[in-house]
Design goal:
Blueprint (H helix, E strand, L loop, with lengths): L2 H11 L4 H8 L3 H8 L9 H15 L3 H13 L5 H7 L14 H32 L1 H13 L14 E3 L4 E6 L5 E7 L4 E7 L4 E6 L2 E6 L6 E4 L2 E2 L10 E6 L3
Parallel strand pairs: 1-5
Antiparallel strand pairs: 2-5, 2-7, 3-4, 3-6, 6-9, 7-8
Helix pairs in contact: 4-5
Length: 249
């Protein structure tokens, strides 16, 4: 699910109409409708969009970090130049079109560039010829040495761990076997173990002392194994579900 659809679902789960949410957040109805369709262009820039998202999450009783994390992955990942970001957030004005360069200046620059390239090619050619004549045996010896001793980069590095832990009493393994899903995991002390997207085919393991609390954005797309035992499906595809597991689960 996208951020817009998650916000729409959370609003409906809270029993709010679009008008109710507009009144509580002081955000225009038209802007809220666009946000729920993943259109943040009329929010006034990235900074204002983040502010709207935090405001909405607060009124819906959801941790804003969850929505902000998804927003960053879906929206801020788009490549923008620094100039575009500054203009978008009203830090600077759109620069005027640069003045045209005269044809005389272009001709001069082209001739200078050709001269520099020519000189560089002569120098490189002479240098290469000198090295070939002077050290052919050294090159052969180096090659043989490298063949005899494999480099450190050839050594296989250990695979990165996917375990997030604040203890060892409870273990929950989450696998996105049927579809990707956003996921938020915390322990009984309220410490966040993970907040973000779980890609299709990805598996993460979480452990803690007494209890793990999970909120899954696409319940039908994931499988859970709790304390070594596979649990039944926790929900349907696209359904937002919250579950908790303890030592005796």
């Amino acid at each position: 699910m996208t951020l817009g659809s998650l916000i729409a679902q959370a609003r409906k789960d809270a029993g709010f109409s679009i008008e109710d949410l507009a009144a509580k957040t002081n955000i225009r109805i038209t802007v809220l409708r666009e946000i729920e369709k993943d259109n943040f262009k009329n929010c006034g820039g990235d900074t204002y969009a983040r502010g709207h998202i935090r405001n909405i999450a607060k009124k819906l009783g959801i941790a804003s970090a969850e929505f902000i994390s998804i927003y960053e992955q879906e929206q801020v990942g788009e490549t923008k130049s620094m100039q575009e970001l500054l203009v978008e957030n009203n830090v600077m004005r759109q620069p005027q079109e640069n003045k045209k360069v005269s044809w005389k200046a272009l001709v001069t620059i082209s001739i200078s560039s050709l001269a520099i390239v020519g000189v560089a090619q002569v120098i490189i050619s002479n240098s290469s010829s000198t090295q070939d004549v002077r050290t052919p045996q050294a090159y052969t010896a180096t090659t043989a040495s490298e063949a005899a001793s494999p480099s450190a980069t050839a050594t296989n590095s250990p695979a990165p761990t996917n375990t997030f832990s604040t203890g060892t009493g409870v273990e929950v393994k989450v696998s996105a076997t049927r579809g990707k899903s956003w996921l938020f995991v915390s322990d009984s002390a309220g410490r966040t173990l993970f907040s973000g997207q779980l890609s299709l085919g990805e598996t993460k393991v979480f452990t803690t002392d007494t209890q793990l609390d999970l909120k899954v954005g696409n319940a039908g797309g994931v499988d859970l194994v709790v304390n070594g035992k596979k649990v039944a499906d926790i929900g349907a595809s696209g359904e937002v579900v919250s579950v908790s597991y303890g030592v005796n689960s």
